[in-house]
Amino acid sequence: MKTIEQQRGDKSNDICMAVEPGICGFSCVVKARKQNKKLVTLKIDGSECKQIQRISKSLKKITLSELFVPVRRNPVFLSAERAGCHPSCPIPVAILKAAEVAMEMALPREVRIKFELESKDGE
User: Fold this and answer.
1) Which of 16, 22, 78, 112 lies deepest, with the highest CB count within 10 Å?
2) Does residue 54 form part of some domain?
Protein backbone atom coordinates (compact mmCIF):
# COMPACT_ATOMS: atom_id res chain seq x y z
CA MET A 1 0.00 0.00 0.00
CA LYS A 2 1.38 3.40 -0.95
CA THR A 3 1.67 6.16 1.58
CA ILE A 4 -0.50 9.20 1.00
CA GLU A 5 2.61 11.18 0.04
CA GLN A 6 3.43 8.60 -2.63
CA GLN A 7 -0.16 8.75 -3.86
CA ARG A 8 -0.06 12.56 -4.09
CA GLY A 9 3.35 12.36 -5.81
CA ASP A 10 1.72 10.21 -8.48
CA LYS A 11 -0.88 12.99 -8.95
CA SER A 12 -3.40 10.28 -8.17
CA ASN A 13 -6.76 10.82 -6.55
CA ASP A 14 -6.92 7.18 -5.47
CA ILE A 15 -7.13 6.91 -1.70
CA CYS A 16 -6.55 3.69 0.21
CA MET A 17 -7.25 3.43 3.95
CA ALA A 18 -6.62 0.48 6.26
CA VAL A 19 -9.34 0.49 8.91
CA GLU A 20 -9.02 -1.38 12.20
CA PRO A 21 -12.42 -0.93 13.85
CA GLY A 22 -11.61 -2.27 17.30
CA ILE A 23 -12.53 -5.26 19.40
CA CYS A 24 -14.50 -7.01 16.66
CA GLY A 25 -11.24 -7.49 14.75
CA PHE A 26 -12.95 -7.13 11.36
CA SER A 27 -10.41 -4.91 9.62
CA CYS A 28 -10.96 -3.76 6.07
CA VAL A 29 -9.50 -1.63 3.33
CA VAL A 30 -11.49 1.33 1.99
CA LYS A 31 -10.55 2.60 -1.45
CA ALA A 32 -11.91 5.80 -2.95
CA ARG A 33 -11.21 7.04 -6.46
CA LYS A 34 -12.15 10.44 -7.80
CA GLN A 35 -13.94 9.98 -11.12
CA ASN A 36 -14.63 13.66 -11.74
CA LYS A 37 -15.19 16.85 -9.74
CA LYS A 38 -18.45 15.53 -8.30
CA LEU A 39 -18.13 11.73 -8.10
CA VAL A 40 -16.06 9.21 -6.12
CA THR A 41 -16.22 5.46 -6.59
CA LEU A 42 -15.80 3.27 -3.51
CA LYS A 43 -14.49 -0.21 -2.86
CA ILE A 44 -14.47 -1.87 0.55
CA ASP A 45 -12.42 -5.08 0.75
CA GLY A 46 -10.99 -7.57 3.17
CA SER A 47 -13.57 -7.64 5.94
CA GLU A 48 -14.99 -10.86 7.30
CA CYS A 49 -17.85 -8.84 8.81
CA LYS A 50 -21.13 -9.71 7.09
CA GLN A 51 -22.47 -6.19 7.64
CA ILE A 52 -19.44 -4.56 6.03
CA GLN A 53 -19.67 -7.02 3.15
CA ARG A 54 -23.28 -5.91 2.62
CA ILE A 55 -22.21 -2.24 2.64
CA SER A 56 -19.53 -3.06 0.09
CA LYS A 57 -22.10 -4.59 -2.25
CA SER A 58 -24.56 -1.73 -1.96
CA LEU A 59 -22.29 1.32 -1.80
CA LYS A 60 -20.26 1.77 -4.97
CA LYS A 61 -20.16 5.57 -5.33
CA ILE A 62 -20.86 8.84 -3.59
CA THR A 63 -21.36 12.29 -5.04
CA LEU A 64 -19.98 15.55 -3.75
CA SER A 65 -23.40 16.72 -2.59
CA GLU A 66 -24.04 13.42 -0.76
CA LEU A 67 -20.89 13.87 1.31
CA PHE A 68 -22.47 16.77 3.13
CA VAL A 69 -26.08 15.70 3.67
CA PRO A 70 -27.20 15.14 7.27
CA VAL A 71 -26.68 11.72 8.83
CA ARG A 72 -30.36 10.78 8.46
CA ARG A 73 -30.11 11.14 4.65
CA ASN A 74 -26.44 10.28 4.13
CA PRO A 75 -26.07 7.30 1.75
CA VAL A 76 -23.15 5.85 3.71
CA PHE A 77 -25.03 5.85 7.00
CA LEU A 78 -28.23 4.64 5.32
CA SER A 79 -26.28 1.75 3.78
CA ALA A 80 -24.74 0.94 7.17
CA GLU A 81 -28.18 0.95 8.79
CA ARG A 82 -29.67 -1.32 6.11
CA ALA A 83 -26.67 -3.66 6.46
CA GLY A 84 -27.27 -3.95 10.21
CA CYS A 85 -24.03 -2.26 11.31
CA HIS A 86 -23.52 -1.58 14.97
CA PRO A 87 -24.13 2.16 15.60
CA SER A 88 -20.59 2.69 16.90
CA CYS A 89 -18.86 0.97 13.96
CA PRO A 90 -16.19 3.41 12.70
CA ILE A 91 -16.10 2.04 9.15
CA PRO A 92 -18.90 4.27 7.78
CA VAL A 93 -16.99 7.33 9.00
CA ALA A 94 -13.81 5.96 7.39
CA ILE A 95 -15.69 5.60 4.09
CA LEU A 96 -16.75 9.26 4.26
CA LYS A 97 -13.22 10.38 5.18
CA ALA A 98 -11.75 8.45 2.24
CA ALA A 99 -14.26 10.02 -0.14
CA GLU A 100 -13.55 13.52 1.20
CA VAL A 101 -9.81 13.07 0.73
CA ALA A 102 -10.27 11.63 -2.76
CA MET A 103 -12.36 14.69 -3.64
CA GLU A 104 -9.62 16.91 -2.17
CA MET A 105 -12.14 18.29 0.34
CA ALA A 106 -10.06 17.14 3.33
CA LEU A 107 -6.46 16.45 4.17
CA PRO A 108 -5.34 12.88 4.79
CA ARG A 109 -4.74 12.73 8.52
CA GLU A 110 -4.98 9.74 10.80
CA VAL A 111 -8.04 9.58 13.03
CA ARG A 112 -7.86 7.86 16.37
CA ILE A 113 -10.10 7.05 19.30
CA LYS A 114 -8.03 6.31 22.36
CA PHE A 115 -9.27 5.04 25.69
CA GLU A 116 -7.51 6.44 28.73
CA LEU A 117 -7.99 5.54 32.36
CA GLU A 118 -8.88 8.39 34.62
CA SER A 119 -7.76 8.17 38.21
CA LYS A 120 -10.41 8.41 40.93
CA ASP A 121 -8.72 11.35 42.64
CA GLY A 122 -8.80 13.50 39.49
CA GLU A 123 -5.11 13.16 38.60
Assistant:
1) 16
2) yes
SS3 for the chain, per residue?
CCCHHHHHHCCCCEEEEEECCCCCCCCEEEEEEEEECCEEEEEEECCCCHHHHHHHHHCCEEEHHHHCCCHHHCHHHHHHHHHCCCCCCCHHHHHHHHHHHHCCCCCCCCCCCCCCCCCCCCC
The one-letter amino acid code at 69 reads V
Asked if residue 117 is part of any domain, the answer here is no
Residue 86 belongs to some domain of the structure: yes
- Residues 49-86: pLDDT tens digits? 999 999 999 999 999 999 999 999 999 999 999 999 99
81-100, pLDDT tens digit by residue? 999 999 999 999 999 999 99
Number of domains making up the chain: 1
- Domain harbouring 90, CATH code: 3.90.1010
Nearest in space to 40 (alpha carbons), one of 56, 63, 20: 63
